[in-house]
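Lab notebook, bench 4. Still working through the backlog of constructs that have no structural model yet. Next entry is a single chain of 323 residues. Request: give me the structure tokens for it.
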Amino acid sequence: MPARVMRQNKEIKELFRQKIKEKVAREKEKRRNRLDEELPSWISWALKPVADLAFEMRQRRDSNRGEGGEDRAAFNFWLFLSKDWVLVNDVVLEPKPDEFIQVDHILIGPPGIYLVETKAWEGAFSGYKDNWRRKEGSSWVRCESPTKQNKRHVRLFKEWLEGNPGGALPPKVEQWLFPAVLFTRAKWLKVEECSMPVFDSGVGLAWHIRRQTKNVVLGAEQINAIAGALVNAKPLIGQDSVAVECLPVSEAASEQAVTKDFVSGLQVQTGKTRDGRCYVKVYGDKEDAEKVRSTCEAEGKRPGPLKPDRFNKGAWFFYIENF
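Model written out:
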């Protein structure tokens, strides 16, 4: 039987998407503010649209570069690995506050865990000691390093792994956590002294993993526990319940929200609107939002009626009256 395939919860993924979107917006605003600080006002006014466009193009480029080969790679992993393996594709995690990773493929089996970064880049590529170049015409130019990118994934995934899955895990995680990079469309590839193996074929990587199956580190219960923790992983919001607190916001901001945690496992935000009204926003279903509102009421606050957020699907809000 082929490998089992599991997927992250769609609703949880939407929470990640929203939080990452907010982080991108903050970074974009920082870039605009730097222009204000470093340039005369009239030049800043003229360049802001250009800076915004460049930022958006870079974000789009970074998010789209690797797309196109993941499905083919996932099929090879599913086909050539046994039922002892669990495959989770396109995993988003927040191992540290406001620091995210998106891993193309995570394979969990008896020998350990493989983190696979997949690139559908076309052309010729050369990697030496994690520094990469691509051929453009007759010249070689520096490009993004997929091995450095995956090294970061491994570092942060290790932090997430040590703090999340239930049940005892074997010691020395770094000895059974294996990174790999897979190129699915490269016409020519040369790799020397990089920090992890690099493959130009999904079948080749799948057979490489198969050969490691004789080394048993993780039992079936541990494999299932790690896989379950992955598919249900949520954005970080803190571990303990806290009271409602409307924090001060700048006069220029119409709605600056601060992440809070009323009920473990929920993403909750508080802030003020332009007219000074304190609000509480909950990402989740209506029942979850009602729990937050009830907690607020039990603490002596005066929550208004619960309403759906018109601009954020899957979000609910209420005002705190006379706060």
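Notes after review: Residues 104 and 138 are 32 Å apart (CA to CA). The helical segments are 10-38, 41-64, 70-80, 146-163, 202-210, 220-231, 286-298. Flag for follow-up if needed.
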